[in-house]
Specification:
Order of helices and strands: HHHEEEEEEEE
Strand content: 35-45%
CATH topology of the largest domain: Lipocalin
Radius of gyration: 17 Å
CATH class of the largest domain: Mainly Beta
Shape: globular
Helix content: 10-25%
Structural class: alpha+beta
Number of domains: 2
Strand order of the largest sheet: 1-2-3-4-5-6-7-8
Amino acid sequence: MTRFLLSAALMLSLAACSPEQAAATGAQVAACEVAETTLAGDWQRTGEAGTFEQFSLAMENGERRFDSWLHERPEVSGGSWTYQPDDCRLALNGADSNLQWHFKVSADEAGNRLTLSPLDAGSGTVDGTYQRLAD
């Protein structure tokens, strides 16, 4: 029983560590399969759950722009975003505020549906699935 509990504790600690920490311990970390170019575009929430109703991730003049809308009115305008493709981490930043959101991103094979899973405990954000809007 003790061996099982120690194994379970090790598995939980490896799940919570960074890719670098996991590599140092010899654990296997699944590579992220979501390309940064997949993220660029306009997205709309497909269900009731999700941090944003609609949002846009754009690349303009070498800069990454983030905007969101709630009930078809601007919510965040002129924000920015960063993406870590090695571990599928998306960070969204509000323009003139201290608002920040951090997500783990997954996508369908065609890149038309995203799931954003919050990485910030207690941030008030929830998992959300988003569909790409037509251009």
